[in-house]
Amino acid sequence: MSAARQTGGDPLKPDPGSPDAGSLDPGLIVDEYGLPRCFWQPSMPDYHDHEWGRPVTDDRRLFEKICLEGFQAGMAWITILRKRDAFREAFDDFDMERVARYTERDVERLMGNAAIVRNRAKIVSAINNAQRARELADETGSLAGWLWSHEPQPQTRPAAVDRHYWDNNPTSEASIELSRALKRRGWTFVGPTTIHAFMQAVGMVNEHMSGCVCHAQIEAARARFRRPG
């Protein structure tokens, strides 16, 4: 399912034009103010309302998100979100330079940290990916510029994002392409589903439900957004 502060209208203020529950797509719920939101919003309200889908350009936060999506594989995202502060502390706030220099001693340190996900393969993958991210940034100027160059073109996007689309599209052509490009560069735990979730989270695509109050806000943020690179 990263990180830019909300701009635009206040999502907590009722909108007289909001649809009622009877006309909602199954992918939407109506909050206590009568506003439509994505069906998963109640489980992660702040993340949904203020973070998910908002464009991110900071190399460190993009690297963090790829790592956390890798740790999430086979688990619920809310579990990772609850552990995010602990991950940041354990991984030097996902400073690529520092993580790239981790040794076997660091792997053992992380394996002993009960506050994070203690999966050796995923920990080793994060260290490997830090090394690959550093190489990529050195080669191209920034991790952000290279990643955002894989943003899908508008004509490849669905006309509407609804529950049917959500349930039947765990990957996309763009996420498959980016996954392959990362794997060619030696990255691990970056399969198409993981990368699709990454692209959703950092605003490369807007996959809030089309009727969600945040969908229009993110469309506006993406229209103002200056792509890196």
TrEMBL record:
Where are the stretches annotated Disordered?
1-25
SUPFAM superfamilies on file: DNA-glycosylase (SSF48150)
* InterPro entries in alphabetical order: Adenine_glyco (IPR005019), DNA-3mA_glycosylase (IPR052891), DNA_glycosylase (IPR011257)
- Name of the featured protein: DNA-3-methyladenine glycosylase I
